[in-house]
Write a structure and sequence with these properties.
Number of domains: 3
Number of strands: 23
Distance between the termini: 38 Å
Shape: globular
CATH class of the largest domain: Alpha Beta
Largest sheet: 7 strands, mixed
Structural class: alpha+beta
Radius of gyration: 26 Å
Number of helices: 18
Strand content: 15-25%
CATH topology of the largest domain: BirA Bifunctional Protein, domain 2
CATH architecture of the largest domain: 2-Layer Sandwich
Length: about 525
């Protein structure tokens, strides 16, 4: 685990050094849990968003997009339950003066037991080879069976406490399982209490007349309050979906792990409206479709898993997460939820407006049910960065740091380099840049040796490097170098466009899904 933490520190450092992510307000010593995306980061982020948007709106003719405002009428958050129920259970350690989420401390303790189980299983698998029966081993090995029994008992107790919202029991679980503060190493805990995560501000010119408004903690409600506008103006029939990408804000007390949990973040959400009674069928459908979207990036199918929720939100009748294996363990990158008709019913009740769907086949009005897919752009960005980073030992004894980014989302698609800065090579290289730049993010690079330039492009994940040399002037061919294999070949300048397009176009990803 320590080794993985070292790798993660290197990734965070690499992200800054190569213009992916900067600490916000760094010259003023930074603002905790807020980050800015640099010149390469913003391109990678935009490409991830484009991949999601196109997969939703181009591949599904019954899904359209909107962009709703961050500020919304405050009663919306009363109706949605956020004013009363959008809380985290917090606990403080009196010695370190550090604050933690009680549920995260317990989940980390469960994860540690899982690690012990996996260690024992891995040792046995090595010993027995192909004849190894995991299920039988877990049942018959006394040590593993004891770990599993302890894990299941803790899991059940934790699940019961969360569902009952029993804060005293959460503290008791922490005490009974000897969970210590990671900083002080002590068990000197305060009571667990609830903390609302919404940011408040005021709208209006005078203190007397100002209205309390909230920075939205999620983008979903902007879709729900516009659902009937979209349905009527777009003449939409059930089932149909509304997609949105936008900023959301949560006053996270325990913000950590770089951009994994931030106070200002971006979501890609799609709400899919269905007939009541059909929601669980569509829930299963979207589980499969969304996992396929992730796997199409080619970062390793084994790095993904589903995780069903222990505690369902007050509005849900089914919920699962798609988790990705980060350097700090499997973590949620996307949630798929069956939200029932809770949100639309609440907004109808609080607004006093009828927002039902008129079904022309049944000749009746009713409130649709909703399946939500919600993905954190920043978490998705982090999963791509973590899975792509490699320190690679080369045959000549050197090492290179390379980002094996999926080519369609890479910030720079190709770099064009004159071998030397004379003899007409820079001019020829500039011509090639001018022919490619309308379709691909293309970079011109003439500084340093060609080897150093290759390393620089490897470090930002550029799939192709194109070198212009003296032979280019004779026969109009260039050397093209592939990032992952480092193989080089001569190709005609006129063939570059098609060759690059086949590798880097988002269409290649979308075709896998279609």
């Amino acid at each position: 685990m320590a080794q993985q933490e070292d790798v993660f520190k290197k990734i965070v450092s690499h992200a800054k050094e190569y213009g992916f992510v900067f600490q916000s307000s760094e010259i003023y010593d930074g603002l905790a849990a807020v980050y800015d995306y640099g010149q390469n980061g913003v391109e990678l982020k935009n490409n991830i968003k484009r991949y999601w948007w196109d997969a939703m709106t181009l591949l599904h003719e019954n899904i359209v997009g909107i962009d709703s405002a961050i500020f919304m009428h405050p009663t919306i958050w009363k109706a949605s339950g956020h004013v009363d129920a959008f809380n985290d259970p917090l606990i403080d350690n009196r010695d370190s003066k550090k604050r933690y989420r009680a549920d995260v401390l317990i989940e980390d303790a469960i994860a540690k037991i899982d690690e012990k189980i996996e260690k024992e299983v891995a040792k046995a698998e090595k010993r027995f080879g192909e004849s190894f029966d995991r299920e039988m081993f877990c049942k018959t090995n006394a040590r593993v069976a004891e770990h599993i029994s302890k894990r299941d008992a803790l899991h059940q107790r934790y699940s019961d406490a969360m569902n009952a919202n029993d804060l005293d029991e959460l503290k008791q679980i922490i005490i009974d399982n000897d969970i210590v503060c990671p900083i002080s190493g002590t068990r000197n805990w305060t009571d667990v209490r609830q903390f609302n995560l919404m940011f408040k501000t005021e709208m209006g010119s005078t203190a007397d007349g100002a209205m309390t408004v909230y920075l939205r903690p999620e983008t979903a409600q902007g879709i729900f309050v516009n659902y009937l506008n979209v349905q009527k103006t777009g003449r939409m029939r059930l089932p149909f979906g509304i997609a949105q990408i936008g900023k959301a804000f949560r006053n996270e007390i325990v913000a950590r792990q770089f951009i994994f949990r931030m106070r200002e973040f971006e979501q890609m959400e799609m709400q899919f409206f269905v007939k009541p009674g059909e929601e669980l069928k569509w829930f299963e459908y979207w589980k499969q479709v969304r996992l396929a979207w992730h796997k199409a990036l080619g970062m390793g199918d084994q790095k993904y898993r589903y995780h069903d929720h222990e505690k369902l939100a007050h509005y849900a009748n089914a919920a699962t997460d798609i988790e990705f294996e980060m350097p700090f363990g499997f973590k949620e990158v996307e949630g798929i939820h069956s939200r029932t008709n809770f949100d639309l019913s609440q907004h109808e009740k609080y607004s006093g407006k009828k927002i039902q769907y008129f079904d022309p086949e049944k000749n009746e009005s009713y409130t649709p049910y909703v399946i939500e897919t919600s993905i954190g752009v920043d978490r998705m960005f982090l999963s791509v960065l973590c899975s792509s980073y490699e320190e690679q030992a080369l045959e000549n004894g050197e090492t290179r740091v390379v980002l094996h980014l999926p080519a369609p989302v890479a910030p720079v698609k190709c770099a064009v380099m004159p071998l030397v800065k004379k003899d007409g090579l820079p001019e020829k290289a500039r011509q090639i840049v001018d022919s490619l730049k309308f379709d691909f993010a293309t970079r011109y690079d003439e500084k340093d040796s060609i080897g150093k330039r290759y390393r620089r492009q490897d470090a930002i994940g550029t799939p192709f490097c194109i070198t212009v040399d003296h032979q280019t002037l004779e026969d109009n061919t260039v050397t093209i170098r592939h990032r992952d294999s480092m193989e080089q070949s001569r190709v005609k300048i006129e063939d570059l466009h098609e060759l690059i397009h086949n590798e880097v176009s988002l269409t290649s990803l979308l075709r896998k899904l279609a």
